[in-house]
Design goal:
Keywords: Hydrolase. With 145 residues, this protein is an alpha+beta fold. The protein contains 4 helices and 7 strands.
C-alpha cells in the first residue's frame, strides 16, 4: 500500500480556548495530505482545475483519539482506501511525534465538471491517474461480469 506523509507544525492559531487543536484543523490537514499524496504520485490537482474539473468531498468521517497541542508536529499519513468509477475514498491517520494516533478518518471525493457539477469518471479525464489509483487502492472492489 502506498502511503504519503506530510508533517504539519501546529501553530498557536490552530488551537482553541482549551489549548488543544481545534477540530476543524484536522480536516484542513487531511486536505494537505491528499494534495501531498497526489503530488507524490506525480500528478497535479491544479491541472485538473485548469482542465475544468474539481473534486469535492461528498462524505467525511473522522475519529478523534488523542488531542494535539501548540508546538507539536503532526504527521499526516494519507492513502487511497478505495477507488471505483466515480468515487475515491482516501484514508488518513494524523499522528503525534511518538507515533500515537491523534485522529483517523476518511473522505470520499468525486470528480465533476466545474461548470455544471456533473460527475465524470477519472479514467475519462486522466487514464494514467485512474490506473495508478486502481493499482494502489488498499481495498479492491470485486469485479462483476
Amino acid at each position: 500500500m502506498f502511503v504519503s506523509e506530510k508533517e504539519v507544525e501546529i501553530r498557536y492559531a490552530d488551537t482553541d480556548q482549551m489549548g488543544v487543536v481545534y477540530h476543524a484543523n484536522y480536516l484542513i490537514w487531511m486536505e494537505m495530505g491528499r494534495t501531498q499524496l497526489i503530488r507524490d504520485l506525480g500528478f497535479n490537482y491544479a491541472k485538473l482545475e485548469e482542465m475544468g474539473y474539481v473534486s469535492p468531498v461528498i462524505d467525511l468521517s473522522i475519529q478523534y483519539k488523542k488531542s494535539m497541542r501548540y508546538g507539536q508536529i503532526a504527521k499526516v499519513r494519507t492513502w487511497v482506501e478505495q477507488h471505483d468509477k466515480l468515487r475515491t475514498t482516501y484514508g488518513y491517520e494524523i499522528l503525534h511525534e511518538d507515533g500515537s494516533v491523534a485522529a483517523s478518518g476518511t473522505t470520499v471525493n468525486i470528480l465533476v465538471k466545474k461548470d455544471d457539477f456533473k460527475p465524470v469518471p477519472l479514467r475519462k479525464v486522466d487514464p494514467e491517474w485512474d490506473s495508478k489509483y486502481n493499482e494502489i487502492a488498499r481495498t479492491k472492489k470485486e469485479k462483476t461480469s
